[in-house]
């Protein structure tokens, strides 16, 4: 999230929170695609991570991008920590370890999304190359220890850094040493939201396998294809993973609200200052738990919006749905991730096929799949069927969905060709992580150093 929200509208009831989410419902012709992608930032000469301060730094990149684009700087405690397009059509933000993120504009087609991502990377290279800086598109930091990873000066990250070790063993690794590609998608009604959330939850392990690209940690193979996927198994299980109530036939906005209300908060933002609030849930906040600690102790809609952004289930609900299971990856996969989900969820025939395919998958079975996928990748199984076989079926459904959408570019091509990197993985039967491991054991001669050239933007 580039900028935390300040909306002083008071909250008078829990139903208002559900109504706020329901206000995201849109007719199909208003559905949009918002793609986010993160990448590691490193020095080309040493392959070391780039710190925030200095002449060749994250700060210098942000200032250069601000000058080039004319985007508004986001300031936290006097330091630039992001940029936002003046009309709200996109933002640049920093993850805790300096991972550079583009939160794309809400666009109509994958063609537009791909052009946006390519333009962003070209602009970034123009600023970065004179500084001797490049970017790495994979899911997990391959070489740097946690101690070697820089820390960005964002107040919310200071709070999270103190809190994470209290609630899980891998939260700091999640914050500082992972990258992802995500897509934000719309829904037309509560019923449409329900089926998209259910399908998103069930198929997130498949996305993890298809995009698995984090096989190295601190210079060595880690025994996994998606270290990032494994990290999410023990980050903060109160606010992440699968949500049992989503599987219910009558799941609705209020169910998500009731869950979110009982998750501990991270912070409350008042007058530009972050106040730690990890000792209370949002429900306790609504009941006056911060009276005596804040000058404005009762929650606002801005507080609610910010709180929703600190929840990390596999599919996250706000006024849209975020698909969160994929590792970061090379540039072709930035376009493939939204194509995968749009093909499944934005065509009526496709979503019906996908729901039927997964109809008998129980929460327990999906949780088991989620636990084995980081290690087994496409070989992970559910109901005696491998993700490799399921992936072939699901990609076929997604391809048909994109063809049915018939969103053509100037050359008359639909969006289905953006699935090519995933279809290639299925055809080979290997994840990107396994291809990296083959290189490590072959041409790379037991070194992860070549990843900084072979997979750099």
From TrEMBL:
SUPFAM superfamilies: Glutamine synthetase/guanido kinase. It is an enzyme of class 6 (ligase). InterPro entries: GCL_bact_plant, GCS2, Gln_synth/guanido_kin_cat_dom, Glut_cys_lig_pln_type. Pathway: Sulfur metabolism; glutathione biosynthesis; glutathione from L-cysteine and L-glutamate: step 1/2. One of its GO terms (molecular function) is glutamate-cysteine ligase activity. It comes from the Bacteria. Keywords: ATP-binding, Disulfide bond, Glutathione biosynthesis, Ligase, Nucleotide-binding, Transit peptide. It holds the Pfam family GCS2. Its EC number is 6.3.2.2. It catalyses: L-cysteine + L-glutamate + ATP = gamma-L-glutamyl-L-cysteine + ADP + phosphate + H(+). Catalyzes the synthesis of gamma-glutamylcysteine (gamma-GC). Homodimer or monomer when oxidized or reduced, respectively. Belongs to the glutamate--cysteine ligase type 2 family. EgtA subfamily. Belongs to the carboxylate-amine ligase family. Glutamate--cysteine ligase type 2 subfamily. This is Glutamate--cysteine ligase. The lineage of its organism: Bacteria, Pseudomonadati, Pseudomonadota, Alphaproteobacteria, Hyphomicrobiales.
